[in-house]
Amino acid sequence: MPRLTGLAFAPALLLFAFLMPAAAVLAQEAGSPMILPVDPAPLVAATGEGEVRFQIEVADTPEERSRGLMFRERMPENQGMLFVFPQNLPVGFWMKNTILPLDLLFVSDKGEVRAILPGVPFSTDTISPGEAVRYVLELNAGTAEREGIAVGDRLSHPIIDAASGG
Predict the structure, then answer these.
(1) Please, what's the b/e burial string for 34-51 (b: 16 or more CB within 10 A of its CB; e: otherwise)?
(2) How many structural domains compose the chain?
(3) Global pTM value
(4) Structural domain of residue 127, as residue ranges?
């Protein structure tokens, strides 16, 4: 039987090194929610009825934006997730693997709410405002209406203010 050298194992080790991270990601995506730290600064919605404050998690990397609120079973009433894109883009969301019914607020680079659309749990239908936006704020379903948030209202947060010059 021929003796195997370290070089003979190299292809197998490379394959193992490639597949292990992929397996870890798949295991993580198979049902565990992503919990991001709550940002220390509140997000403020200036509505016709006054200001409303939310604690937010910020999803600003491609991986965080793709995972979002999937597999979450609950979210506090005054909390949301702000999706931050590098520039105004035409965006589309779906609710595959998302248990929570949500309000999706599509927000311009100036912080203006351009559309508020419902997110139906587990739906693979695309949710899109039909225009380019820089941010999407996900809140528990019904929050926008209950708090008086409407299209045209302005959202303020250090991330939004820095990009909008406000």
Answers:
(1) bebeebeebbbbebeeee
(2) 1
(3) 0.82
(4) 43-164
34 located within any domain: no
Residue whose pair of structure tokens reads 């693997």 in the numeric block: 97
pLDDT tens digit at each of 166 positions of the chain: 444 444 443 333 333 333 333 433 443 456 899 999 999 999 999 999 999 999 999 999 999 999 999 999 999 999 999 999 999 999 999 999 999 999 999 999 999 999 999 999 999 999 999 999 999 999 999 999 999 999 999 999 999 999 888 6
- Residue 11 within a domain: no
Domain membership of residue 28 (yes or no) is no
Cβ burial of 111 (10 Å; 0-12, 13-18, 19+) is buried
Domain holding 58: CATH number?
A: 2.60.120.1140
Whether 116 contacts 151, CB under 8 Å: yes
